[in-house]
Amino acid sequence: MSVQAPSAVIMIRPRHFTPNPETAADNTFQTEVGPGRDEEIAGAAFREVTRAAETLASAGVTVHLFDDEDASRNDSVFPNNWFSTHAGGRVAVYPMYAPSRRTERRADIVEMLKSQYRVMDVVDYSGLEHDGAYLEGTGAMVLDHMTRVALTARSNRANPIVLERFCSQFGYEPMVFDATGEDGTPIYHTNVLMCIATGFALAGLGLIRDERRRDEVRDTLAEPGREVVELSDHQVYEFAGNAIELKTPDGLVLALSSRAAASLTDAQREVIERTCRILPLEVPTIELAGGSVRCMVAGIHLARRPVDVHPMRDEAVLT
């Protein structure tokens, strides 16, 4: 069984999704949308999340799907930025860079985790926002649960002091590097750059411009015997790195967007399919906000309680 791939996830279905102008300055993956399309975009995003959750559930993944009616939360569809879960019953809650995103943290979701999974400890770093220190969860960090390394690209959203504190308390080794786009802008989240699965890793190593550091990252990804699949810069911007390996009763699947899947070469697919079934999800509207499938899915790495619990308000459990 893989410690890397969770079998249950949390997703948020927003009623008022739209690309967030507050995050556009440092998110070069984001697409500007003209005026007058808010209702159209919100409706399309709602349908995309619904279909994605149903597809994952049909594949055998347990999906805890929460609705969000708050019109002020543009990016609530990306819950992996504000919390993460960890083996041993631990939950981390993170400080967010954009003020408009800080209300995405929801006590009802943490309470659901406590009621349905074994949660021993919740470590809340969100107070560090008052010190201008941010760490946007498993967007800012890509966690290797097998080798206990937290790979992190330097950005506004990954403060090194908060990273060190998280790693010390949760038992990871930080590995920090610089990664930039063609215009020199830092990659805003590490999880658009790479995906770590059990038997392979997808990584846009060319965006790590320092050759020595690039080799060190490649070696770290390969350390437990993984095959490293190098993504081109173009594939990174097609969200091929923004994928997540999930566990189902029938084996492992790699969830990624249809756009990302279409960018893969036959040779890359061959490596992935040795251990995973590729599971494309159609989320083009969500991708306007600069994130894709990995950003939409918060994995649950917690032990399930043995009792059945009724869904909470605003939650649907899809299995």
UniProtKB/TrEMBL annotation:
Residue intervals passing through the bilayer: 187-208
Domain of life: Bacteria
Pfam families linked to this entry: DDAH_eukar
Keyword Transmembrane helix part of the UniProt annotation: yes
Keywords of the record: Membrane, Transmembrane, Transmembrane helix
Cross-referenced NCBIfam families: citrull_CtlX (NF046062)
Record-given protein name: Amidinotransferase
Species for this entry: Phycicoccus avicenniae
Lineage: Bacteria, Bacillati, Actinomycetota, Actinomycetes, Micrococcales
